[in-house]
Amino acid sequence: MNLTITDTPEYNLRDVLSSRLGRFNSERAGPGEWRPIAAVLHDDAGDPVGGLLGTTSYGWLFVEMLFVPDAMRGRGVGTQIMRGVEAEAAARGCRGAWLDTFEFQARGFYERLGYSVFAQLDDYPAGFSRFFMRKSWRPIGSAEGGPE
Questions:
Q1: How confident is the prediction along the chain (148 residues), in pLDDT tens digits per residue?
Q2: 61 touches 86 (CB < 8 A)
């Protein structure tokens, strides 16, 4: 066996690792039922200018990234995106959501939407913190409820 440390991995390494790790996880925790979820903001020409990318799996929504252009901030666009995606996640059977955000990004925005910090990584990036946040909208095992 040879080990290579590199900043230029083979093009298919992500697929190989994801497939094998997914199989390992499914054998232990059951199928995760991974599904992408997205909300896209388009400009008048139809080009994407912002939105949200995430996944749903194991009964949770993971918000990987959310971006709202400066000109649209403070007008409820981010809230509309989050509420829409949370509603879709709830319809898929999710019981909550989680995400991470840097100190200089949107912690206050997410807190206003009902998210709370469950972990914090200090000095990442240097001089700042990274916050891991969650929001539950129904108790584990409950079939009732949805995001606020």
A1: 998 999 999 989 999 998 999 899 899 998 888 999 999 999 999 999 999 999 999 999 999 999 999 999 999 999 999 999 999 999 999 999 999 999 999 999 999 999 999 999 999 999 999 999 999 986 555 555 566 6
A2: yes
Measured distance CA(23)–CA(128) in Å, rounded: 36
- Quick one: how many helices (H) and strands (E) in the chain? 3, 6
pTM above 0.70, yes or no: yes
In contact, 49 and 77? CB cutoff 8 Å? no
Contact 64, 85 (CB under 8 A): no
- Outline where the chain has alpha helix (H): 13-29, 77-91, 107-112
Closest CA to 59 of 120, 134, 148: 134
- The CATH classification number of 13-136 equals 3.40.630.30
Closest CA to 146 of 89, 64, 90: 90
